[in-house]
Write a structure and sequence with these properties.
The protein is mainly beta and 125 residues long. 0% of the residues lie in helices and 42% in strands. The termini are far apart.
Length: 125
């Protein structure tokens, strides 16, 4: 008998698996009881969220996903193509870049936030 911990949709289950020999008839399958919830790792400190200041150029999410990192700060000068933040979508890390030269006027998301396609992530002046 081997014991395993399996996580499904964030819930951990302890299961035991019995290896049967050839021609053996398995007994009724036991139902696995959920294990104690596993504590999530502490989140990284969140990036500062703008206090309502919005720039004229919006940086929108190209797809739904989760913010993994915020690479720029409010007031920071950026050039076109500079990485402003990293968005995880379908297990891929996507760099969100500045569409033009400017200064970061506002950051509307923090690390760990889930966003939808078209949501404003940041803005530039």
């Amino acid at each position: 008998m081997k014991n395993y911990r399996i996580t499904v949709n964030g819930t951990a289950y302890d299961v035991a698996v019995e290896e049967l020999g050839a021609g053996a008839v398995p007994a009724a399958a036991p139902v696995a009881a959920p294990a104690a919830p596993v504590a999530a790792a502490p989140a990284a400190p969140a990036a500062p969220v703008s206090g309502g200041a919005e720039g004229s150029v919006k940086i929108a999410a190209p797809m739904p996903g989760k913010i993994l990192a915020v690479k720029a700060n409010i007031g920071q000068a950026v050039k076109r193509g500079d990485v402003v933040m990293v968005l995880e979508a379908m297990k891929m890390e996507n760099e969100i870049t500045a569409p033009q030269d400017g200064t970061i006027a506002g950051i509307n998301v923090a690390v760990g936030d889930s966003v939808e396609s078209g949501d404003t992530l940041a803005s530039l002046n």
